[in-house]
Amino acid sequence: MEPPRDHQQQQSHHHHHQEDPSKLSESPTICAKCGGPTCFPPPPDLSANPSYIPIRFPAVNLPNPPTNTKEAIIRTPVPQPQKVDIISPPYHFTAPSKIIHSQDDIVQFHSSPVFHNFLGFVVSLSESIKSRKLSDPYRVSSTIEVIISILQILSDYVDEIPPAPQSARYGNVAYRTWHERMSSDAEPLMLKFLPLDLHGATVELVPYFTDSFGNSSRIDYGTGHETNFAAWLYCLARLGIVTEEDYPALVARVFVKYMDLMRKLQHTYSLEPAGSHGVWGLDDYHFLPFIFGSSQLIDHKYMKPKSIHNEDILENFSSEYLYLSCIVFVKKAKKGLFSEHSPLLDDISGVPTWNKVNSGLLKMYKVEVLEKECILGLLNSKTVIYVTHQVEFLPVADLVW
């Protein structure tokens, strides 16, 4: 006959009290159930901050500020999508002016609503293309069609302005002719899709647009210029020219067309990488296609981050996924072992899922590009301009370069 269940539980519970009380420490711990002494050590004190950083430890509660960029990226919360705040009339557009002059101005900019709204816009673009191929059908509005045609016009300019004969590795001077033509035509190109009541917005839109294709003095291009193009798209969203329904086409049609143009410019005029991190960068020129491309591959049934080492996959699918096309470009542009010339991309290939790759790249973009490279680099050489807005409504801190 089985003993009563209560008796079994009592026996099970008291087995740890059978130790000789004389062998217990001078301050024995107390059993939470019966109040008797127990030989088990006391539980750890959970009130103090741990000396290590657990994976899920909230970044906002970290005891000390990060000491380096890598630590800052690890501690940064994953950026979240945000709806773009659309402005309403009456409009008061203002010519660009330099606002950020000091480190305090940078701190103020980073805490401003528009900084987080712009970053949220980039995240929204990334999510809009999640698990989708470039060849998938997308809604393409008349405005999107005009923007694509504008980029095609700029591409045609490259065909009409051949590179000048020179022996220098970087910086073909013919690029300056192309850039001058693009800049002079920028405003009439904007007017192709702006409604009549928004024609005055060109005073703010044109500087973003012309800064999206590189620097004509240095004949270089980098992630700061790429971010200017994203800021130009953000301005169009602020104006209501493009809506959330257009976001997938902004990535799969507009941004891809922009990428094609920039690759053409880089190849034709030998643009120097601006602010390149060398072997410890993703790409000498671009960052956003890695974000958008990793989002495309989230939950893919067969392709994992390590698939970038499979040449058959790269050959057959690089036209469908931005991330893979960037890997192909890097492998063609750089010689030697991939792990040696692109160690960061090689390390990322060891991440288990594309979702983790995407969230990590978003954090890296916030820290490496928006909080450091672009803003600090622009202090001495570029103009900080207003986001499209009503001047009397927006505080001075609400700026994007």
UniProtKB/TrEMBL annotation:
Annotated region Disordered: the residues are 1-28
What InterPro entries does UniProt report for this protein, alphabetically?
Answer: Phstyr_phstse_ac, PTPA_C_lid, PTPA_sf
Reactions it catalyzes = [protein]-peptidylproline (omega=180) = [protein]-peptidylproline (omega=0)
Task: Write down any Gene Ontology CC term.
Answer: cytoplasm
Q: Name one Pfam family in it.
A: PTPA
Q: Where in the cell is it found?
A: Cytoplasm
Sorted alphabetically, which CDD domains does this protein's record hold?
Answer: PTPA
Q: Which GO terms describe its molecular function?
A: peptidyl-prolyl cis-trans isomerase activity
The function of this protein is: PPIases accelerate the folding of proteins. It catalyzes the cis-trans isomerization of proline imidic peptide bonds in oligopeptides.
Entry's family note: Belongs to the PTPA-type PPIase family.
Q: What is this protein called?
A: Serine/threonine-protein phosphatase 2A activator
Which organism does this record belong to? Answer: Forsythia ovata
